[in-house]
Write the structure tokens for this entry.
Amino acid sequence: MIRLLPSIKFAAKSHFYLIFFHAVLLLHLCGCNATNKPDEYVIGFSQCVESDAWRKTMLEEMKRELAFHPNLKLIYKQADGNSEKQISQVKELLSEKVDILIISPNEADPLTPIVEQTFNRGIPVIVVDRKISTPSYTAFVGGDNYQIGKIAGQYAASLMSGKGNIIVITGLPKSTPAIERDRGFAEAIKSFPAIKVAEKVNGEWYKQKAKDELLKIAGSTSNVDLVFAHNDMMAYSAQEVYKEKGLQKPKIIGVDGLPCDSCGMQFVSSGLITATMLYPTGGEEAIRLAVKILSKENFEKENNLQTTVIDSTNVKLMQLQATKITSQQRSIERQQNVLENLKTIYKNQRTFTYILVFLLVAATTLGGIVFFSLRNNRKINKQLQIRNEEILEQKNKIEEMSSKAHEANEAKVKFFTNISHEFRTPLALILAPLEELLAQSKNQSQLQNLNLIHKNVFRLFRLVNQLLDFRKIEVERMKVRATENDIVSFVADIIESYKSIAQKRNIDLRLITNERQINVWFDASMIDKVVFNLLSNAFKFTKDEGFIHVYLSKTEDGKNAVIRVEDNGVGMAKEAVERVFEAFYQGEYENYKGSGLGLALSKELVKLHGGSINVKSEKGKGTEFEVRLLVGTDHFSPEDLAEGYTPSPIQYERDIYTSDLEGQQRTNREVSYNGLKEHSVLIIEDNPELRGFLADRLSSDYEILEAVNGQEGLQHAFDSVPDIIISDVVIPGKDGIAITNILKNDVRTSHIPIVLLTAKTSVEQQIEGMKNMADAYITKPFNLQFLQQSLKSLLANRSKLKDHFTGDISSSLKTQTVNKLDKKFINEFTSLVESNIANDDFGVDDICKQLGISKVQLYRKVKALLNINVNDYIVETRLQKAKFLLQHEEFSIGEVAYKVGFSSPAYFSTVFKSKFGITPKAFKEK
Ligand code: FRU
């Protein structure tokens, strides 16, 4: 599985790159369009009035121009010729955050402050048509009204041939076009003294107002040669008044010259008025100028639009041009519409294209993923196939091996079974004469030996029988021959076999039941094994003075008979509880080694009866086994029932199971070996029989110390410092090798020779033992003589070493191996004595303190290594030094005595003489 990961990673990476690439492409496509988009602007347009055609035309022109700038939005307000209203409308526009203000001020002065304010806030202001009274505006677009007035005046003068009366109809007096047109006109006719302005009427730019004012001066209208009205509407009113009054119509000049119906040009062409001055609205120009300002392009502040006179001579041409322009404008509008449509189509197509591109990208991505996945899948499949083949091959090999292992096991088990069978005859042949010898023998020590053999023969019998039974169950299915028995008397009978052991060990063995009789169908030759096993087990793990209680009962429903064996023995750990019924499981108590078959066999036997066996145990508290056997015969097949069959008496099983247990009751032997022997031996062995055997055999030559486990062994070694140790390798607690390691690395015990004794013959183990500085390694079964000889030679070597250390050893033995720690000890010990030679107070206590060991350990150690008593060694050293000083130095006897730590020269002399047979004085003289 792990081997597939790199390819999956690669595929994931490829997918990622593919998606990333497409995302970038898509973003790029959308992004191109976004970056070209112009900024959006809002134009506020404040119109003074809108009711007339001229203003409408201005707005139309603006809109037409705006059509070319979709990024511009127009907010339009008109003030109905009311300056107050216009001021508040400008304020509204400002609050709507316009980017630029276009204003045609109704009157100059009232509108000036708001325009100035706007301009000063940094908002560009374009003034159109009418002006204001401040230069604080951004730009102006419109006709030059002074020029219009002037040209009109000159034209009027030429029409009147330099003489005559004129009526002037003015626009709103405070609006700049009215002021400037009037000024221009006056300027032009000034040079014609014969021309007089007979009347000046204020028409306020309105048709009706002009008519009303003209009618007011009806009397003075008759001898008038020319009327100059400030716009065409007021000019029309003038011609109406003359027509209505039936008076000779004077020449009439208007201003604006719009081409529309009922506008200036039509009035001229139809002869209603004489001429009109072209006054362009500037709507289109104002928008263009706004665009320039907003896009920060260069622009002119003052933009005056051209004027011309339109009269009968050019009106047709002008109209034609206007029509042409109008039709062109219509065509432009149509084209614009088409363009708009195209734009919409383009937009739709663009959206469609995006969708298409997106789908394409998605499809390609998915395609890529599918491709990579497929490729990957193929790879994975290939790898899986290879793996499968490998696994298959392995499986075949395992099968082959397991079948071989099975065969080998079968062969082994068969061999075991056969050999077990073979064992039974010789065992029986040993048993018979042995029992005879036991009956005849009177010699106590011989009887002891024969008993030992007898117990072990039964032990072998039990092992062989269990092995054969187990084999029978495993391979051939043991046949149950059930008979109806009273389980109470059956179990009581078996318990009886353990009574004497219980008595000897002071174990409270009891059968506890409320039932006088419980009849159960079972094969007595099988269930007796189960009960014997459980009891043997309980006895093995229960200490002296403990209890073993056997409870017999029936379950409440009466369907089961229950045998419960309870003890307060050592108990088991959880793991042991779980595995206790496994065949060959040895458990954790190696000092109670068994075959590991008893409980496994019991379980199988109970199973053959359709029953159950369970265990409850707690370490240190005890164990409880419970066997349940079904009452009645329903669970048996007819051939399992063997009515009339009498199983063999339990005597045989009794011997097999109980003989072993008695062997553990050895009396405390130490007492009997208390004789004072030259050497002591510590035997660390968990098997009581073997320990007893060794103790027996070695007790004539050695002082015996015994330990049943590692911990006890170490304790004895440190407390008693024996001369030699024999230890089993496999023992409970610390094993023999660990013990050797500890003892050999402790100065108190490092000198003690250790013989490791074990049933394991592996060379590795021997090497391991030697590595840990064991002095000898003897494998079981061992020859007692060989063991005794080994002990002797190890002790002899030790004594040679002693000689070596005391200095009287021949050079040939100097190569003798000795523990480093021991060398160190000797060096420390001897140098300590030497450096304190002059100190008469110096003694054993000082040495123990300095070396950190107990007195016993010091005595034993020095005795073992130097074969001399510690105090003797100190005196010996003092005397040797004295000898040297007497020989080589010029000291008096008294001085020498003090120098070697004698408190008086007399005492020194006595000791010296007793050692060397000569007084110090005589020695010195010699
Ligand atoms: C329209 C109008 C025009 C005139 C202009 C002056 O409202 O009266 O006829 O030329 O305004 O601002």
Remarks:
- The mean pLDDT is 85.
- The CA atoms of residues 491 and 531 lie 7 Å apart.
- The first strand starts at residue 41 and ends at 47.
